[in-house]
């Protein structure tokens, strides 16, 4: 992962905004003019607190929403100007694993239908081969043939998430948006699913956009990490660099807020806590979004929006004070 | 030895359902000491919430019922109390902070009224006094403009704010014990840190005993003095927080600590998951509930529940590996910092700590 710049850009997000009008004069700016790139074969972590726009970003990339401004380029082409044939291809190549396994599987479909639907639509398997293909997929995610005729309610949360993963893998995708794939699972099950995601990536050369709020998990799985706050990107860097040398005040706060499972270390560590809560994303003024909670904020932060700029190779920060 | 203010003895609580009887809590015993922060950790369905809700009799009965045991508070058994007696304890002697602030507050009642509700029907506190107390407590839990918030409805508040109101409700009667059932699970990390700080502060300031339920080992490490680890309706390990993390004596605890990705976990390392799934409590296993997933399981483990065995004076574990005839198994050392960090902190760590 050392040579990021020379690698092929798989996906480029350019000036993307996604607004939701919630009443005549109120606009919720979920994602506000963001830019980033994802290279083939890498895992990009997208972190931030609830309501910061990380899930919306993932969904807009997959065309689940139509953005207000900006473009998403996949393999150099704008996904929003695809022809129907290209669109079909894109929906095969780019897949999603949803956050809540309990609500993202159709309760009236059997596992076989859930996993097989994509393959049928994209004509990836003859009907005679379909069962075998599904069986192979299920085995890959740690389930077996007996599970094929069962319904989602017969499975535990961890197993349901595996079905969701099998569904995403069924159409041989290149790129998967993992939207908090483990946050609904129990601690002892999380590691099972994380290991599986990692293994699939190695075996199949997948590219991930990994959305999560758990910074320890993001550090573990990502090559690069993007930190979002209220619809904007505040910091972006290679994983090790971001955790060793967080520059944006928000990233620093976020990192020091992580509860560490080690009592002695917790006692020794000096912490930085923020007062106040996340501001409202409804009609936000064009200034730094973190200003109300930032210990370093001064006049310029209250007048202008800090641009995302490169402070070290591959390390971008949106802050006037850095 | 600190004063014990609540004692749970051989508690067994089950629910009757269409599918049969679910044995949610199976013979657990523990004590709560004055001024301590006692953590209860475990996964969903391990019985941690049900067992603390028993303390205030908050589980619906029926379908829930006590199969046995007693809960002693000031010499009286809560299990046998009438509703009238319970009312004198709930909120007054023992407060409760619920997991989900979004659904636990009454949406049709102003925040102030909900906090004051505890004084209703009590002659010793006048209305004016009650309001004064409510405003004071709102300020104490870190709410700005308490006068304004007092008049607002829950939907006008953010999640973190609602959780503060929940804490205020639990506190206003000045109870000696507060039970906090996953108080930060639905909150973001920066807000979680604020709420945990408030709880810790209150515990130290008023010498309140707090029972903190969580599934997050990070929260345990940060907050607790003593920890109970639950699995499959039973307490499998119990001890001071350092003993649980550094001298882990139960394979489940050890597995749990190992399976989480921490900031120190290298990207090339594979996480060590606990394979399998928790036991079905409709027909709980006769032996150790963890036996089916335990890599050290022996024949006896599937047949008989091990006794609660003393490891060090304050540290207990229910595991056959501690039996004198058991093979000598060393559980993987889980705490990373104890050895490495004490003598010489790595430069990375120092840099990180300075920065933060």
Give a structural overview.
The complex is a heterodimer of chains A (322) and B (356). By secondary structure, chain A is an alpha/beta fold. Chain A has a domain of 77 residues. In chain A, 33% of the residues lie in helices and 24% in strands. Chain A has eleven helices and twelve strands. In chain A, α3 crosses α4 and α3 packs parallel to α5. Chain A is globular. Chain A starts with 8 loop residues before the first strand and ends in a 5-residue tail after the last strand. Chain B is α/β, with parallel strands linked by helices and 356 residues long. Chain B folds into two domains: 221 residues, Rossmann fold, CATH 3.40.50; 110 residues, no CATH class. In chain B, 32% of the residues lie in helices and 23% in strands. Chain B is built from 13 helices and twelve strands. In chain B, a hairpin with a 2-residue loop joins β4 and β5. At the A-B interface, α6, α7, α8, α9 and α10 of A face α8, α9, α10, α11 and α12 of B.
- Large-scale geometry of chain B: globular
Shape, per Cα inertia axes of chain A: globular
Q: What would you report as the Rg of chain B, rounded to the nearest angstrom?
A: 22 Å
Work out the count of structural domains of chain B.
2
Number of strands of chain A: 12
Q: Which percent band covers the strand fraction of chain A?
A: 15-25%
Between the first and last Cα atoms of chain A, what is the distance in angstroms? 26 Å
Fold-level CATH name of the largest domain in chain B: Rossmann fold
Number of helices of chain A: 11
Query: Count of helical segments of chain B?
Result: 13
Q: Kindly report the greatest chain-chain contact and the residue count on each side.
A: A-B, 52 and 57 residues
What percent of residues of chain A adopt helix (DSSP H or I)? 25-40%
Beta-strand share of residues of chain B: 15-25%
The overall pLDDT average of chain A reads 88
Structural class of chain A: alpha/beta
* Residue windows where pLDDT falls under 50 for at least 5 positions of chain A: none
Largest sheet of chain B: 8 strands, mixed
As laid out across the biggest beta sheet of chain A, the strand order is 6-7-8-3-9-10-12-11
CATH superfamily of the largest domain in chain B: P-loop containing nucleotide triphosphate hydrolases
Stretches with pLDDT under 50, minimum 5 residues of chain B: 338-356
